[in-house]
Amino acid sequence: MCFITNFSNKRGVTLDFSNCRKNTTVFGSENLSSRGYGSVSVSALSGTSDWKGRTREAMRGTFEDRIMSKLLDRSNLTKVQFETILLDQIGSEMAEKTLTRAEMTQLRRKGPKVSRGAFNRTLRQARENVAESVHTVLLLGWSGILESPSLAPFVEASERLRIQTQAVKDAASSDGSEYASLVDMLLSDLEEAFDALRGKKRDA
Questions:
Q1: For residue 71, pLDDT beyond 70
Q2: In angstroms, how far is CA 176 from the centroid of its own chain?
């Protein structure tokens, strides 16, 4: 299933973001998707017969994923912004029903229900941050900076995340210790990439 969001950032540039997702699977207490580590299964969630319960449980599993948490901490999105854009993009899939804006405002993991206006403002801020991040990556690629040696660990870590997706899923379904080892390795790669981006090793 594909979700496409079209929006303009504050500089007036319009982008189409396509988020295509295959079937998701839950392995034990860890939730993994076919394209990443922080997504969740709806059909496998048991004991949550209502749409609010299903969606909140799915959101909880997403935010408990270790790799997703690390990436979110290093991103330019706040947790509330990420939660909001997640509900906007795949909330209906998690709830197994088409969600209205009013229903999305009831699904925050923490705190009271927010108004539609507050939800939409947070969503707009999140979309602008995503648009600017994508443009930053495009700028670095166009200018050749992504090919510089100092950014090599970042590029390599990104590639390893992509390649190891299936391996992590397989390990999670069969061997808890192997899964933990793979996640630890990927988290170490991400930390090394972050240090490279900050120039920590070069400046030491």
A1: yes
A2: 23
Task: Provide the pLDDT confidence category of residue 200 given band limits of 50, 70 and 90.
Answer: low
Sign of the CA dihedral with 93 first, then 97, 101, and 104 last: negative
Sign of CA dihedral 58, 61, 67, 68: positive
Amino acid at 96: E
Cα(30)–Cα(38) distance, integer angstroms: 9
DSSP SS3 for 8: strand
Q: Under a CB-based contact definition with an 8 Å cutoff, are residues 66 and 190 in contact?
A: no
CA–CA distance, 15 with 31 (Å, rounded to integer):
29
Indicate the domain borders of the chain.
2-147, 148-196
Which pLDDT score is estimated for 188? Answer: 84
Residue among 82, 57, 58 at smallest CA distance from 69: 82
Q: Which of 66-80, 100-114, 161-175, 182-196: highest mean pLDDT?
A: 66-80
